[in-house]
């Protein structure tokens, strides 16, 4: 997985590789939008013909909520407030799964460009109590990194 800082919509991914997160702490039912957007009029060829994914990484664990939904949204303005279309959604993720370094991937709808949206960003919606901790880093990638496999000890390699 290769990260491009121009494709980060929440948080930051500095050269050191240690991500910082956007404190996405929405009041139950009131969504929080990503701090940044991707302008498709500048980055028109974003993954043309490829499967794209937005990766959401919990930089800090969430507390006190029931669930959090991660969404990829398109909009006609950079504030992500007009002509909003949901391009992909994680569905509700339970609080027990929202631990530090947990990753969730949401695939883009293949019909992205036919929606007529100029901007892409992320939206976070909670169910339950408003969280007091938690942050997320969200970025667009072509491949999902699956480097978190753990194998049982005590086996022999022949």
Keywords:
single chain, 158 residues, mainly beta, Jelly Rolls, 9 strands, globular
The dominant shape is globular
Mean pLDDT, all residues: 84
- Please name the CATH topology: Jelly Rolls
Number of strands: 9
Largest sheet: 5 strands, antiparallel
User: What is the count of distinct domains?
Assistant: 1
What proportion strand? 35-45%
Q: Determine the number of helices (DSSP H or I, runs of at least 4 residues).
A: 0
Q: Tell me the Rg in angstroms.
A: 16 Å
Amount of helix? under 10%
Low-confidence stretches: none
> What is the CATH class name?
Mainly Beta
Order of helices and strands: EEEEEEEEE
User: Distance between the terminal alpha carbons, to the nearest Å?
Assistant: 30 Å
By CATH, the architecture is named: Sandwich
Based on helices, strands and strand pairing, what is the structural class? Answer: mainly beta
Textual characterization of the structure:
- The structure is a single chain.
- By secondary structure, the chain is mainly beta.
- It has one domain: Sandwich (Jelly Rolls).
- Helices cover 0% and strands 37% of the residues.
- The protein is built from no helices and nine strands.
- The chain has strands at residues 8-10, 32-33, 38-39, 53-60, 65-75, 85-94, 103-107, 119-128, 135-141.
- Strands 2, 3, 5, 6 and 8 form a five-stranded antiparallel beta sheet that branches. A four-stranded antiparallel beta sheet has the order 1-9-4-7, with no helix packed on it.
- The chain is globular.
- The mean pLDDT is 84.
């Amino acid at each position: 997985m290769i990260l491009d800082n121009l494709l980060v919509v929440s948080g930051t991914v500095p050269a050191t590789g240690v991500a910082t997160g956007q404190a996405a702490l929405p009041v139950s039912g009131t969504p929080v939008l990503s701090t940044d957007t991707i302008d498709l009029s500048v980055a028109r060829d974003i993954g043309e013909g490829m499967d794209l994914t937005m990766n959401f990484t919990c930089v800090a664990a969430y507390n006190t909520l029931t669930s959090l939904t991660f969404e990829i949204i398109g909009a006609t303005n950079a504030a992500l407030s007009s002509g909003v279309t949901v391009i992909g959604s994680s569905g509700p993720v339970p609080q027990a799964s929202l631990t530090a370094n947990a990753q969730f991937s949401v695939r883009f709808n293949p019909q992205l460009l036919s929606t007529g949206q100029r901007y892409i960003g992320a939206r976070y919606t909670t169910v339950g109590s408003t969280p007091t901790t938690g942050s997320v880093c969200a970025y667009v990638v072509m491949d999902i990194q699956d480097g978190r496999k753990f194998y049982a000890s005590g086996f022999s390699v022949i």
